[in-house]
Amino acid sequence: MAVKLSTSCLPKLLLWLEQYLPHSFKLHKELKSHLGGQYPDLEFFVDKWPHPQAVVAMVNPAAEQLICRAFLQNVVVGVYGSDDEALGNLLRDPSVVDWNTKTVFCAFSSQQKPVLQAVAEGMGKSTAFTPNFLLKASSEDLKPIPVPEGMKIRPISDADVGIVNSTWKFATDGSDVFIQQFIQQFPSVYLETEGGVHVGHMLGTSCGTIGMLYVNPEFRRKGYAKVIISHLAQKYFDGGDDACVFVEETNSPSLSLHQSLGFKVVPGLTINWMKCGPKGCCRAQLDKKCCV
What we know:
It is a single chain. The mean pLDDT is 92. β9 and β10 form a beta hairpin. Helices cover 31% and strands 26% of the residues. The strands form three sheets. Strands 4, 6, 7, 12, 13 and 14 form a six-stranded mixed β-sheet that branches. With 292 residues, it is an alpha+beta fold.
């Protein structure tokens, strides 16, 4: 039977996940953010305690601080298992995952893909996977690129949330509050002209990555994306961390951009997102979130 962990157990769970890096990357970073008070509204389930073999993280449905929980109500935040059978049993436990509502499973290692797919199909679901590379850069790999003349750079503010939300391809009802929480808790960069015209932005996330990079069309192909990325990465270097980013395997321009700055693909690792819906849904339907 699944065990919902108390706060006092979470430091030990963090050490357990650390053994399995980089495959446990997302959950490990998410739990660090949770313990640091930056992402408080999570709950963690394991197959057994104190010697777990599988863990699933969710947004606490009773959370009051994360008022955007409607945006995340269909999401399983993180999944990891050192044992396939234990992970499969945990995912099938109705007290952990409600397969009638949970349609997106976030950033799990390719090691877990067969288990996720088998369990989803066993629940009568169609599935679609989006594989990503995980790239890292250290302070030795990447140096800051000077802010061009006539431009200024600053953190994203609450007043900028509408712009960030409107340019995010995954934006939906409630995602603006999700973004607001991230810019209040994690590093971010907003590049604009001296006259206040928005050039582009990027922000840090709860799982220790940088993402949501956007450059206004009129300012593209002028090197501004590199300025934004390098300055946000520097904030992580200043805190003693590497800079990390997820890049979809099919997004060759983004992959080339980050590699040109010094980011390196973590070898032997693919990070997947899985969308699922009623049997018979095609990829296009799942991507449009037609299936719930």
